[in-house]
Design brief:
The chain has about 160 residues and is α+β, with helices and mostly antiparallel strands. It contains five helices and ten strands; from the N terminus they run αββββββαββαβαβα. It has a single domain, classed as Trna Endonuclease, Chain: A, domain 1 (3-Layer(aba) Sandwich). A six-stranded mixed sheet has the order 1-4-5-7-8-10, sandwiched between helices. The longest helix has 14 residues. The radius of gyration is 17 Å and the shape is globular. It catalyses: Endonucleolytic cleavage at a junction such as a reciprocal single-stranded crossover between two homologous DNA duplexes (Holliday junction).
Length: about 160
């Protein structure tokens, strides 16, 4: 559901001229097709983030993630190529982040890349393999409904973190 809500927000942002966000789909090599239905295939390469685009002149890229766990966000939901992509994006002056929904808590956060990267590097070095909910509450931005949207992520993306 998270991506559906984000897609709805992106349509509204485009219509109002606030942002131009594109949902990306990974390229697939089809190995079996019957009539017009794809029966089997595989991803050609590791995909780019779920969404890329512009908020005014600010390039943004982000991924949407959900977890039913109440206490933390497991880092196995994130892949090394995603963190590397976010690094390259920010090194070019863009803004990268995750939108993470704790479905059982009904809380959605924008997690800036620098916080993700810090926790990712700690996990790679043998630390915790998840990000506690409290880290989100302390270092991420709570995404609230607004403007007739369930997930109004744009104000959070433009807000400076605490």
């Amino acid at each position: 559901m998270l991506e559906t809500y984000i897609d709805m927000a992106n349509i509204k942002y485009q219509q109002s001229g606030k942002a131009e966000i594109i949902k990306q789909f990974p390229e697939v090599t089809v190995t079996l097709k019957e009539q017009q239905r794809i029966m089997s295939g595989f991803y050609k390469a590791k995909g780019a983030p779920d969404y890329i685009g512009l908020i005014g002149k600010l390039p943004v890229c982000f991924d949407a993630k959900e977890t039913a766990i109440k206490t933390n966000f497991p880092l196995h939901n994130v892949h090394d190529h995603q963190v590397a992509y976010f690094d390259r994006w920010e090194n070019q002056g863009g803004k990268a982040f995750l939108i993470v929904c704790f479905t059982s808590m009904n809380e959605t956060y924008l997690l800036p890349h620098d916080v993700l990267k810090e926790r990712w590097q700690a996990a790679v070095a043998g630390g915790a393999k998840s990000i506690p909910l409290q880290i989100f509450r302390d270092h991420a931005i709570l995404i609230k409904p607004g403007s007739g949207l369930t997930i109004d992520w744009l104000p959070a993306a433009m807000e400076e973190r605490k």
